[in-house]
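Reading a protein record of the kind used here takes only a little practice. To see the layout at work, look at the sequence and tokens printed below.
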Amino acid sequence: MLVDVEDARLLGVQRYEEAQASGVDCFYVAERWRGEPAPVAECSEVAWFDPADLPPDALPWLAGTLRTHLLDGTPFSEVLEG
């Protein structure tokens, strides 16, 4: 799947710390793209999901993050699992 830079809008930034990993995820919204999405090695599948009905193997913090950025409009949030 290809998205032109001008068609991507930053939705939010999520900082996380879990066990041995920490980092930042950036979430973008694109209303136009070319091709079909395909999973990378770390993903079990790529599909369209209702944010309120994610598959059981989704990252544990993903539902809350999507709610925060999509519904609440908060541009930055943190999940500190530690």
Q: What stands out?
A: The chain has one domain: 5-79.
